[in-house]
Write a structure and sequence with these properties.
The complex is a heterotrimer.
Chain A: H1 3-19, H2 24-36, E1 40-43, H3 50-59, E2 61-62, E3 65-69, H4 76-80, E4 81-86, E5 91-96, E6 103-107, H5 114-126, E7 128-131, E8 134-137, E9 143-148, H6 161-164, E10 169-172, H7 178-187, E11 201-202, H8 203-215, H9 220-235, E12 239-241, H10 245-261, H11 269-280, E13 285-286, H12 294-308
Parallel strand pairs in A: 1-9, 1-10, 2-11, 3-6, 6-9
Antiparallel strand pairs in A: 4-5, 7-8, 12-13
Chain B: E1 3-9, H1 11-30, H2 33-58, E2 60-65, E3 70-71, E4 76-84, E5 91-102, E6 112-122, E7 126-135, E8 140-144, E9 147-151, E10 158-164, E11 168-173, E12 178-179, H3 181-198, E13 207-212, H4 224-230, E14 234-238, E15 246-251, H5 260-282, E16 287-293, E17 298-303, H6 306-318, H7 329-337, E18 344-348, H8 354-363, E19 373-377, E20 387-388
Parallel strand pairs in B: 3-11, 15-16, 15-18, 18-19
Antiparallel strand pairs in B: 1-10, 2-4, 4-7, 5-6, 5-8, 5-9, 8-11, 9-10, 12-20, 13-14, 16-17
Helix pairs in contact in B: 1-2, 5-6, 7-8
Chain C: H1 3-29, H2 33-51, H3 59-78, H4 82-101, H5 107-127, H6 131-160, E1 164-167, E2 170-173, E3 187-190, H7 197-225, E4 251-252, E5 265-275, E6 278-281, E7 289-295, E8 297-299, E9 302-304, E10 311-313, H8 320-324, E11 328-334, E12 341-342, E13 348-349, E14 357-360, E15 366-368, E16 377-383, E17 386-387, E18 390-391, E19 394-396, H9 403-410, H10 425-438, H11 445-458, E20 463-464, H12 477-483, E21 487-488, H13 490-503, E22 508-515, E23 518-520, E24 525-529, E25 533-541, E26 560-564, H14 567-574, H15 582-602, H16 606-631, H17 638-656, H18 661-690, H19 696-701, H20 707-717, H21 729-742, H22 751-764, H23 772-790
Parallel strand pairs in C: 20-21
Antiparallel strand pairs in C: 1-2, 4-9, 5-6, 5-11, 5-24, 7-22, 8-9, 10-14, 11-16, 12-15, 13-16, 14-15, 17-18, 19-26, 22-25, 23-24, 25-26
Classes of the chains: A alpha/beta, B alpha+beta, C alpha+beta.
Chain lengths: ~325, ~400, ~800
C-alpha cells in the first residue's frame, strides 16, 4: 500500500475532525463506507450533527457534492432528473438530477414517500439512473450519506426493513459528551467552521483508495470468525430474519476498509468485531417484543451475539 | 447439552438373562465345565450389551430444526440431524424420540404427543438427516423436547437411552379459513361508506403522479413547483384508495367451566379473526386495528403488512379466553379510540350485549349510532355467512 | 434397507444357527442324520413357507403338531437309557424347530427357534469332546449375535415403520383422521431412513465380529472366574481307553504291530525344575526315556516279567533329593489306556499322596488304580533320574536287589536242558569277541557294558529298521539278529544287548516304555504318542561298580542301574531328519489347544483354578501393592506407616478370604470405591477444564497458536488475567494493559501486551515474518513481562 494514500486517510480523518468534534468513531465509520465504496445511513434525533458530518466529509473531498433535502412532495424525478420538453427544438432532452454527484447527502430521507425513496435506493444500488429507457451511469466515486430521524413518526415514511440493507452502515450519531459540546459552542463563536474546511483528497485519489481496500487480505480464521458471527444471527432465537449473504459480504468489505484506515493490509479480528454492530444491526429483523423498540435493542443483541463467539487467535 | 443416561432391560433381555442364569446356575451347581462355557459364552454378549450402547450414545448428538413458522393447518416437518462423532464405531439402530407438549392451561384436548424416528445406522463421523412430521392442529406455544436417543443394539436385550435436554419452542399460529363472497360484499359497502370521508382530507392519500391541469380540477391539486418548471399547470394525481381500514374488536369469552362447544367457539373466533387479518394484509397499506378482550387483553394497530400479520398471528396463537360475564369495558374503550370513520367489526363468542356497549361508548362521548359497527356472534350461525373454517387437518401446505 | 432384504438375511442367519447346533449334535452323536434332515427342512421351509408362501402352518395347527411331536418323543424316550434320552431331547428340539419353520415368521418365532437351538448346544456340550466344541461354540455365538442384531433391526423397523405413501420423492406417512375433539390433539409420525443394503450387511458383520470378540473375552474371564469346587467324579468324562499298541508288559519279538506310525497320544509329560517355591518347565537335553515296566525273563523270543508284582500305595514322603539337589518333577497327563502301567522317568518319589496311583514293591513300576484306567488322569511325581537338564545314565537303586532277582537277570534262557545246544551261543561268542578284542574284564561292568553297547550301536554292523525282518526260523530271534540278520528295531537291539551282557555275567534287564516324544514348544511339554514306544537296557551295577562322581554320597548303597540304549547310534544313522514343517507346527498347535482345553476348559477344577487363576491374580495384585508401598518414600511417613500396615494386614486377610462371602462383599465394596474414584476424578477434570485450569484439550482442538502469544497469555495468566472466549487478542491486551497500568509496580509494563499483540497480529493474520529487530523486541518485551509477572505476588 502506498504510504501516501495512507497519509491521505489520516489527513481526511483529521480534517473532518476539526469540524466534527467528539465524533471520531462516527467519522471513522463514514470513511470506512467511503473506502468500501458504499453508503451510510446516519440515524438520530435532529441537531446532533448528522448533516454536519456528511457535509464535512463531502467538503474534505474535492468532488461534486449534492445535498438533497427530502420532503413530502419530492418526486422521483427531482432526484434522478427527467426529460424536459424543449420548445425551441421541439424535442425532449434529459436534465440530470442532483443524484449525479460524488457525495450525496440525502437529508431526512424518511420524509419522502416510498416512491421517491425507491428512486434513490435504486440509484444507490445500481450506480446508474434509468429515465425514459435511457441509462445514465453515475460518477465514481459515488457515496450516499442519508440521514433520518427515527423518533419522528408524524408525516414520515420509515424505510422498510428490506431497503435498509442498501446501506453499508447504519450509524447512530449520539449526543456529544460535555467537553466536546463545550468545544462545539466555542468553535461556533466566530462563525461556521465548516466553511473553513479545505478539501484534502480528490475523486481520483478516492478511487485509488477504494482499489487499495480491495487488496486487503483476510486470514482464513478471520473469515470463519466472520461467518460464525453471521451464522449466529441466523440461529438466534430472538431474530426472525438473520443476516443475508450480502450482509456477510458487506461486513467483509467494511473490515477491509477498517484495516486500511488502521494502516494495515490485513484484517484483524478486531476490525470484524468492531464493525459487526453498525454493519449488521439494520440487516436483521427481530421477533415479537423486540420489534418497534428497534435499534438499540438490536444493537445490544448483536453485541451480545458477537461476544459469545470465540475470537480467532 | 445436559445429558442423562438410562439403562433398561428389555423383555427379551429379561428372558435372555433368565436363560443365561439358568444355564450358569445349572452348570455351576453341577460343575459342568462345558455348560459353564456355554453359559459364559451367552453371558459375554449380555455383559457387552450393558456397556456398548452407552459407549455409542455418549458421542451421539441430535440437532432438531423446527420450521420458523407454522400454522395449525400446516403440515409440520421437523428435521433431525443425528451426528455420530465416534472415530470408528458405527452407531446402529438408533431410535430418536421427540416429545411435543402444548404449553398453557390444560384443556379438554391432550396437547402432548411423542414420535419415534428410527435410524438403522449412523456411520463413523457421519451426520444423518431424518425427519418426522405431523400436525399440531391447535394453535399455541408448543415445547419440543426433551429428545431421547436410545439404542437396543447389539442384541436387543438392553435399551440404553440418553435424554438430551434440548427443548425448543414453536409458536403455532391459528389456522386460517375462507371468507365468503358475502364478506367481500359487506366490506365493499363499508368501504363505500368510508370513501365519503375521504374527500375531506386529500393530503391523507398517496401521490400517484402528475398530469396536466384540466378544467374542473381543484386548485388544491396543483403542483406548483412542477408547474413553474414546465410553464404549464400540472396537478397531482392521487392514488384511488379503496380504503379497507378495519377495526376488529374481539370478545373472546368462555365460561369458567367450558364445554367442548365453548372451546370450539373460541377456536372458531380466533380462526375467523386470523383469516380476516390475513385477508387484509394481502394488500398492504391500510390501517388495521385489533383489540382483543381476552385473558390478557391486547390492542394492536398498524398498517397492513406481512410483518403486521405475523405479529398478530403470534398474538392470536397465545390468546386465551377470559371468563368475565359482563361485556368487557376494554372493547368500549377501544371503540372510543378509533377514528370515527373506521369500519368496525365486533366478533364475540356470545350474543353481543349492545346495551352495555352503547353505555360504554356513551361514557366516552362516542355516539355509537354514527359508527360503522357491525357484529358477529360466533356461537350462532351468523358467522357462516361470512366464513368457512377449514377442517383442522385440511392441509394448506 | 427395505425390510424384505433384512428378512432374507435374517432367515439365512437363523438357518445357520440351527445348522451349527445340529452339526454339533451330530458330532456328539456321531451321526449326520439330524444335520441332513435339518438342512432339508430349512431348504424346504425357505421355499414353501417363506419364499412362495404355498404352505403356512397356522398357530393352532402348529400347536397341535408340536404337542404331537412331544408326545411321540416322550413315548420313545421312555424306553431308552439316560444317554439315549439326552439324544431324544435333542431330537425333539429339532422336531419342534421344524414345526416352527413352517409357520409365518415373526420375531417370536425367531426367538423360539434360537432358544431351541441353544438347548441343542447345551446338550451337545455334554457330548462333543475336545476343543472342537469351543470352535463350534465360537461360531455359534458369532452367528447368534448377527442373528439377534438382524432380528432387532427387523423388529425395530417393523415397529416404527408406518404404512407409507410415496409423495414428492420420499416416504410420507399417511395420517389417520381422528374423530371428535381429538382432532385438536397433535399427531406426529417419524419417517424411516433408508440405507443401502450392502453397507448394512457388511458393517453388521464387522460389528458382529467385534462384539463376538469382546463378548468372547468377557465370556472367557467369566468362565475362568466361575466358582469351582471339587466334585471329582465329574472331573473328566470317562472314555473308551486306548488300546496300547506300543507298549505292553510282555514283549514278543517280531510283533511290531501297529507301533510304527500310530499317532495316538499316550501321555503328555511336562518336566518341571523346582526352584524354591516355583516350578519351571524345561526341555531335556537329549530325549527322555519314560519307563513303563521292566522285563527280565527271556523265553523263546519273548520277554516277560519273572514274578507277579505286588503294588503299594504311594508313600507320602518327599525325597531327600528334593533338598539335596535341583529336583525335577514330572507333570504327567496320561490318556486312558488298557494297561495299568504309567510311564515316567525313574526313579520316582512322591510329592503328595495320590490315591489314584500305586507303585510296585520294587519301586520299578507305576500303575494307576483300576477305576482310573478309563479316564484321563493328571498327576505330578518327582524324579531323581534327571540332573540339571540331562537324564542321568546311572541312577541309584532304591531298594535292595534280591539274589533271586539277580540270578534271573543273568539267566540267558530259563530252562535249557543239559546237553542241548546253546541257542544263544552266537551271542555269547560275539560278546566274548568284543570284550576280548578290547581286552576288557567283564568284571569291570561299566566299561564292559559300554563296550557291548558300542558294539551294537557304533560298530556299524547293526542296522536299525522298523520294517518286518526276515528271520531264520530255526534260530532264536536274538541269536539270528546278532549273528545273521543284523537288522531290526529297538527290541532286537535291547534284547541283544541284554543277552550279550548276561553272557558275560553282567545282570541286565530290558526296560520298556517311551522314548522322547514330541517336544511342544508352545506348551513346553513332551507329547508322547504310541509311535514313540521304545525298549532299552538297564544294567545292574553293584555299589562298587559305580563310577566315582556319578552318584551322590549317600545314594547307591543298593547299587545302581545303568541305562543303555543300543539303538542310539544305530538309529541316528538311519534317522530321517525330521524338519519342523508346517504340518508339524499345525499338529503342535492342535495338540496344545487340546491340552489347554483339557486343562482349562473341560478339566478346570477348583485346584487348578486356584493355582492358575486366583493365586497368580492375587499375587500380582499383592506384589503390585507391595511395590507401591515399598517404592514411594512418603508411605514410610510414620503416620502413613500404620495405614500401610493396616492395609497389609487387611490385604493378607483379604487374600486368605479371596473367595468367600466376606471376600466377595469386600471385593464388591472395593470395586465400588474404585468406580466412585474414577468417575469422581473424571468429573473433577471436567470441572477443572471448565475453568480452564486443565487446558490439555485446547491443544488438540484449536489451531496452533503462535508461541509468542501463548507465552503472553501464560504470563498474564499468572496475574490472573484471562482472555474471555469472545475477546480478541487485542482487546485482551488492551484490557490487560489497563489492569497493569493501575498497579503500582507494573504500570510501566502496561503498553507491552498491546505491542506484543500488534506484532502477533502482523505475523498471524498479516502473514509477515519478523525481522531480527522485531523478533528481539518481542522477545525482550515477553521476557520483561514474564520476569515481572512470574514472581508470585
Amino acid at each position: 500500500m502506498a504510504t501516501e494514500l495512507q497519509n491521505f486517510v489520516a489527513e481526511l480523518e483529521s480534517n473532518i475532525g476539526q469540524v466534527v468534534l467528539g465524533k471520531t468513531e462516527v467519522v471513522r465509520l463514514c470513511i470506512v463506507a467511503l473506502l468500501a465504496g458504499d453508503h451510510v445511513l446516519l440515524e438520530d434525533v435532529p441537531g446532533v450533527g448528522k448533516t454536519l458530518i456528511g457535509k464535512a466529509l463531502a467538503k474534505s473531498i474535492s468532488a461534486a457534492f449534492c445535498r438533497i433535502q427530502f420532503t413530502a412532495d419530492l418526486l422521483p424525478s427531482d432526484i434522478t432528473g427527467g426529460s424536459v420538453f424543449n420548445p425551441q427544438t421541439g424535442q425532449f432532452s434529459y436534465t440530470r438530477g442532483p443524484i449525479f454527484g460524488n457525495i450525496i447527502l440525502a437529508d431526512e430521507i424518511n420524509r419522502t414517500p416510498p416512491r421517491t425513496q425507491s428512486a434513490l435506493l435504486e440509484a444507490m444500488s445500481d450506480r446508474q439512473v434509468s429515465v425514459d429507457g435511457m441509462t445514465y451511469p453515475l460518477p465514481e466515486p459515488f457515496m450516499v450519506i442519508a440521514t433520518q430521524n427515527p423518533f419522528e413518526y408524524e408525516g414520515t415514511y420509515p424505510l422498510p426493513e428490506s431497503q435498509l440493507d442498501r446501506f453499508l452502515l447504519r450509524i447512530a450519531v449520539g449526543y456529544p459528551d460535555r467537553d466536546d459540546e463545550a468545544q462545539v459552542l466555542n468553535s461556533h463563536r466566530a462563525g461556521e467552521p465548516i466553511d473553513r474546511l479545505r478539501p484534502v483528497l480528490d475523486a481520483a485519489q478516492i478511487v485509488a483508495l477504494q482499489q487499495a481496500t480491495r487488496q486487503v487480505t483476510m486470514d482464513e480464521s478471520i473469515n470463519s470468525y466472520l461467518l460464525d458471527i453471521v451464522d449466529a444471527t441466523r440461529r438466534c432465537e430472538e431474530l426472525r430474519v438473520g443476516v443475508s449473504t450480502r450482509g456477510a459480504l458487506c461486513l467483509y468489505r467494511a473490515s477491509q476498509a477498517m484495516a486500511l484506515i488502521a494502516n494495515r493490509d490485513f484484517v484483524v479480528p478486531d476490525d470484524v468485531k468492531r464493525l459487526a454492530v453498525p454493519v449488521l444491526s439494520h440487516r436483521v429483523i427481530a421477533k415479537g417484543y423486540l420489534q418497534g423498540t428497534h435499534r438499540q435493542a438490536l444493537e445490544t443483541l448483536i453485541t451480545r451475539l458477537v461476544e459469545e463467539i470465540p475470537a480467532p487467535r | 447439552m445436559a445429558r442423562q443416561t438410562q439403562i433398561r432391560i428389555c423383555r427379551e433381555g429379561l428372558y435372555y438373562s433368565i436363560v443365561v442364569l439358568a444355564v450358569l446356575i445349572g452348570a455351576v451347581s453341577r460343575q459342568l465345565n462345558l455348560l459353564m462355557l456355554l453359559g459364559s459364552a451367552l453371558a459375554g454378549p449380555l455383559l457387552f450389551s450393558f456397556v456398548y450402547g452407552r459407549f455409542i450414545l455418549r458421542r451421539l448428538s441430535v440437532e432438531r430444526k423446527l420450521p420458523s413458522e407454522l400454522r395449525a393447518d400446516q403440515r409440520l416437518i421437523v428435521d433431525l440431524n443425528v451426528k455420530n462423532s465416534r472415530r470408528w464405531a458405527v452407531a446402529w439402530m438408533v431410535e430418536v424420540e421427540d416429545a411435543v407438549a402444548r404449553e398453557g392451561e390444560p384443556t379438554v384436548v391432550d396437547g402432548r404427543a411423542s414420535v419415534q424416528v428410527f435410524l438403522p445406522q449412523v456411520g463413523v463421523r457421519e451426520t444423518r438427516h431424518t425427519t418426522y412430521e405431523g400436525f399440531l392442529p391447535r394453535r399455541g406455544r408448543y415445547r419440543f423436547g426433551p429428545l431421547r436417543v436410545s439404542t437396543r443394539f447389539p442384541l436387543g436385550l438392553v435399551r440404553h437411552s440418553v435424554v438430551l435436554d434440548t427443548s425448543e419452542m414453536l409458536l403455532v399460529h391459528p389456522r386460517l379459513g375462507e371468507l365468503t363472497h358475502d364478506w367481500a360484499r359487506e366490506l365493499r359497502e363499508n368501504a363505500g361508506g368510508s370513501q365519503r370521508m375521504q374527500r375531506r382530507g386529500l393530503l391523507e392519500t398517496d401521490f400517484y403522479g402528475l398530469r396536466d391541469w384540466r378544467a374542473g380540477d381543484s386548485r388544491h391539486w396543483i403542483h406548483w413547483r412542477t408547474s413553474a418548471r414546465r410553464g404549464t399547470l400540472v396537478v397531482r394525481q392521487f392514488e384511488q384508495r379503496r380504503s379497507e381500514d378495519l377495526a376488529l374488536l374481539v370478545d373472546l369469552w368462555q365460561p369458567s367451566e367450558p364445554s367442548e362447544h365453548h372451546f370450539e367457539n373460541v377456536e372458531r373466533a380466533i380462526t375467523f379473526v386470523a383469516t380476516v387479518i390475513a385477508q387484509a394484509c394481502r394488500k398492504p397499506g391500510h390501517n388495521l386495528i385489533l383489540s382483543l378482550a381476552a385473558h390478557e387483553p391486547l390492542h394492536r394497530s398498524g398498517s397492513a403488512s406481512p410483518l403486521f400479520f405475523r405479529d398478530q398471528m403470534d398474538a392470536l396463537a397465545m390468546a386465551a379466553p377470559h371468563h368475565e360475564t359482563s361485556f368487557p369495558p376494554a372493547l368500549g374503550h377501544a371503540l372510543a379510540l378509533l377514528p370515527p370513520s373506521t369500519p368496525t367489526l365486533i366478533v364475540s363468542t356470545r350474543p353481543i350485549d349492545w346495551e352495555a356497549l352503547r353505555r360504554l361508548a356513551a361514557q366516552r362521548n362516542v355516539p355509537l349510532a354514527e359508527r360503522l359497527v357491525q357484529s358477529v356472534n360466533v356461537a350462532s350461525d351468523e358467522l357462516d355467512r361470512y366464513f368457512r373454517a377449514g377442517s383442522p387437518r385440511s392441509s394448506v401446505s | 434397507m427395505t425390510s424384505l432384504q433384512t428378512t432374507h438375511l435374517l432367515r439365512i442367519m437363523i438357518g445357520a444357527l440351527i445348522m451349527i447346533a445340529t452339526i454339533e449334535l451330530g458330532i456328539g452323536e456321531r451321526s449326520a442324520v439330524l444335520s441332513l434332515v435339518s438342512l432339508g427342512m430349512l431348504g424346504l421351509s425357505a421355499y414353501v413357507t417363506d419364499a412362495t408362501g404355498m404352505f403356512r402352518l397356522r398357530q393352532s395347527m402348529a400347536n397341535w403338531a408340536a404337542l404331537g411331536v412331544v408326545v411321540v418323543s416322550a413315548i420313545n424316550a421312555y424306553e431308552i437309557d439316560r444317554h439315549g434320552q439326552l439324544y431324544a431331547v435333542a431330537d425333539l428340539q429339532s422336531y419342534l424347530q421344524y414345526v416352527l419353520l413352517f409357520q409365518p415368521k415373526t420375531p417370536r418365532v425367531y426367538w423360539q427357534l434360537a432358544v431351541l437351538s441353544l438347548g441343542q448346544v447345551a446338550i451337545a456340550s455334554t457330548l462333543v469332546p475336545g476343543p472342537l466344541f469351543g470352535v463350534m461354540l465360537l461360531a455359534y455365538v458369532f452367528v447368534g449375535i448377527v442373528t439377534f442384531a438382524l432380528l432387532l433391526l427387523y423388529s425395530e423397523s417393523k415397529r416404527l415403520a408406518r404404512p407409507a405413501t410415496r409423495a414428492r420423492g420420499h416416504a410420507r406417512p399417511a395420517l389417520a383422521e381422528p374423530q371428535g375433539s381429538g382432532i385438536f390433539a397433535p399427531v406426529l409420525v417419524g419417517n424411516t431412513v433408508e440405507s443401502p443394503v450392502g453397507s448394512i450387511s457388511w458393517g453388521l458383520l464387522r460389528q458382529a465380529t467385534l462384539i463376538s470378540t469382546l463378548g468372547a473375552a468377557a465370556a472367557i474371564v467369566l468362565f475362568l472366574l466361575l466358582p469351582r469346587w471339587d466334585l471329582e467324579k465329574l472331573e473328566v468324562a470317562s472314555r473308551e481307553p486306548l488300546h496300547s499298541v506300543g507298549f505292553s508288559k510282555t514283549v514278543t519279538l517280531g510283533e511290531l504291530g501297529e507301533v510304527v506310525n500310530n499317532p495316538n497320544v499316550v501321555m503328555r509329560v511336562q518336566l518341571l525344575q523346582v526352584i524354591g517355591q516355583e516350578t519351571r518347565p524345561f526341555k531335556l537335553n537329549g530325549e527322555p526315556l519314560f519307563r513303563g515296566c521292566v522285563v527280565s525273563r527271556y523265553e523263546n523270543g519273548s520277554w516277560t516279567h519273572p514274578h507277579p508284582n505286588s503294588f503299594l500305595a504311594l508313600p507320602a514322603e518327599a525325597s531327600r533329593a528334593e533338598e539335596s539337589f535341583g529336583a525335577v518333577r514330572q507333570r504327567i497327563t496320561a490318556e486312558p489306556l488298557d494297561v495299568p502301567e504309567l510311564c515316567c522317568v525313574f526313579p520316582v518319589y512322591t510329592t503328595q499322596p495320590d490315591s489314584r496311583l500305586r507303585i510296585s514293591a520294587r519301586l520299578d513300576s507305576l500303575i494307576r488304580q483300576e477305576d482310573y484306567r478309563e479316564k484321563q488322569i493328571e498327576f505330578e511325581i518327582g524324579t531323581t533320574g534327571i540332573l540339571g537338564n540331562v537324564q542321568r545314565k546311572i541312577v541309584p537303586c532304591d531298594t535292595r536287589v534280591g539274589l533271586r532277582e539277580l540270578e534271573g537277570m543273568v539267566q540267558m534262557s530259563p530252562d535249557r536242558l543239559a546237553g542241548q545246544d546253546d541257542p544263544l551261543g552266537g551271542v555269547r561268542a560275539a560278546a566274548e569277541t568284543v570284550l576280548g578284542d578290547q581286552n576288557i574284564d567283564p568284571e569291570n561292568r561299566v566299561t564292559a557294558a559300554q563296550a557291548l553297547n558300542d558294539y551294537l550301536s557304533k560298530s556299524g554292523k547293526f542296522f536299525y529298521n522298523l520294517d518286518p525282518q526276515t528271520r531264520t526260523k530255526a534260530m532264536d530271534p536274538l541269536e539270528d539278529f546278532v549273528t545273521t540278520h543284523r537288522e531290526g528295531h529297538c527290541e532286537y537291539f535291547a534284547g541283544a544287548l541284554v543277552m550279550l551282557l548276561r553272557s558275560q555275567g553282567i545282570p541286565a534287564r530290558m526296560a520298556i516304555g517311551f522314548k522322547g516324544g514330541e517336544w511342544n514348544p508352545l506348551g513346553k511339554y513332551y507329547q508322547v504318542q504310541q509311535l514313540h514306544a521304545h525298549a532299552w537296557v538297564e544294567v545292574y551295577l553293584r555299589a562298587a561298580d559305580i563310577p566315582p562322581g556319578s552318584m551322590l554320597e549317600d545314594s547307591g548303597q543298593y547299587g545302581a542301574w545303568m541305562l543303555l540304549d543300543p539303538t542310539d547310534g544305530a538309529q541316528e544313522r538311519n534317522a530321517v531328519v525330521v524338519q519342523t514343517s508346517f504340518l508339524t507346527r499345525w499338529r503342535q498347535y492342535v495338540d496344545y489347544a487340546r491340552v489347554l482345553w483339557a486343562n482349562y476348559v473341560a478339566g478346570l477344577n477348583s485346584k487348578r483354578q486356584q493355582q492358575t487363576i486366583y493365586e497368580p491374580l492375587t499375587e500380582k495384585a499383592n506384589s503390585a501393592i507391595h511395590s507401591v508401598v515399598d517404592r514411594d518414600s512418603w508411605w514410610r511417613d510414620s503416620s502413613r506407616e500404620t495405614a500401610a500396615s493396616h492395609l497389609a494386614v487387611f490385604w493378607d486377610w483379604y487374600r486368605r478370604h479371596w473367595f468367600s462371602w466376606r471376600g466377595g462383599v469386600v471385593a464388591a465394596g472395593f470395586s465400588l470405591a474404585i468406580i466412585v474414584l474414577v468417575s469422581g476424578s473424571r468429573r473433577l477434570v471436567k470441572i477443572l477444564r471448565h475453568y480452564g485450569i486443565v487446558g490439555a484439550r485446547r491443544f488438540f482442538d484449536e489451531a496452533p497458536v503462535l508461541e509468542m502469544y501463548r507465552r503472553l497469555e501464560t504470563a498474564l495468566g499468572k496475574r490472573g488475567l484471562r482472555r474471555l472466549p469472545g475477546q480478541t487478542a487485542y482487546e485482551f491486551a488492551v484490557a490487560a494493559g489497563g489492569d497493569l497500568a493501575e498497579s503500582v509496580e507494573h504500570h510501566r509494563l502496561a503498553p507491552l501486551p498491546r505491542r506484543i499483540v500488534e506484532t502477533f497480529y502482523r505475523v498471524r493474520f498479516g502473514g509477515r515474518t519478523l525481522d531480527n529487530l522485531e523478533a528481539d523486541a518481542v522477545e525482550h518485551a515477553l521476557v520483561e513481562l514474564e520476569l515481572a509477572l512470574g514472581r508470585p505476588r
